[in-house]
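stage 2 :: seqdesign
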C-alpha cells in the first residue's frame, strides 16, 4: 500500500474522523471525497517494490483521488531510474506525463532535477504552490528521484 494511504491525509466530511485520501472512511463507511488536511501530498511509488505497471496504476489512482479531494500539488517519489525492475518506474511515470496521460487533472509537472534550490523552475513552483517550499528547499542540486505535479 502506498504511504499516503496509511496516514490520515484527510478528514471525513460525514463524520469528521481522520481518514485516508483514497478508499472509504473506516468510521462511517462514507465513500465521498474527504477534505484534505494538507494541499500537498507525497506519494512514494517505490514502497512495496511494485512493478513499473503497478506503480503507474498506483499513480493513476492517486492523481484521481488527489484531484477530487482538492489537493494542489503531488510530490511523486519514483527513484533515480537505475537498472533493475524498480528502476523503470521513473521512466514509466515521465513517459505518461509527457504523453499527457494526466493532463485533465495535472496542470504542470516539473522534474526534480530541474528544481535545484533557487533555480528559475524552483522559483516558479514555490510561487504557484508555496506549500511546496519546505519540501523542495532542501535540494541544493535538485532531486532526480522525484517529479512534482501541480494539480489543476
Ligand atoms: Zn466518516
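stage 2 :: out
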Amino acid at each position: 500500500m502506498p504511504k499516503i494511504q496509511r496516514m490520515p491525509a484527510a478528514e471525513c466530511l460525514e463524520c469528521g474522523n481522520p481518514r485516508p485520501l483514497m478508499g472509504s472512511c473506516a468510521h462511517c463507511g462514507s465513500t465521498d471525497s474527504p477534505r484534505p488536511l494538507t494541499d500537498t501530498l507525497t506519494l512514494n511509488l517505490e514502497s512495496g517494490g511494485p512493478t513499473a505497471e503497478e506503480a503507474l496504476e498506483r499513480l493513476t489512482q492517486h492523481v484521481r483521488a488527489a484531484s477530487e479531494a482538492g489537493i494542489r500539488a503531488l510530490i511523486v517519489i519514483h527513484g533515480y531510474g537505475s537498472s533493475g525492475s524498480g528502476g523503470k518506474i521513473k521512466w514509466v511515470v515521465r513517459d505518461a506525463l509527457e504523453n499527457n496521460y494526466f493532463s485533465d487533472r495535472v496542470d504542470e509537472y516539473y522534474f526534480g532535477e530541474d528544481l535545484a534550490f533557487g533555480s528559475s523552475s524552483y522559483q516558479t513552483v514555490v510561487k504557484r504552490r508555496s506549500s511546496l517550499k519546505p519540501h523542495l528547499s532542501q535540494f541544493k542540486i535538485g532531486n532526480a528521484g522525484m517529479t512534482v505535479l501541480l494539480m489543476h
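stage 3 :: structure notes
- Residues 1-6 have pLDDT under 50 and may be disordered.
- The radius of gyration is 15 Å.
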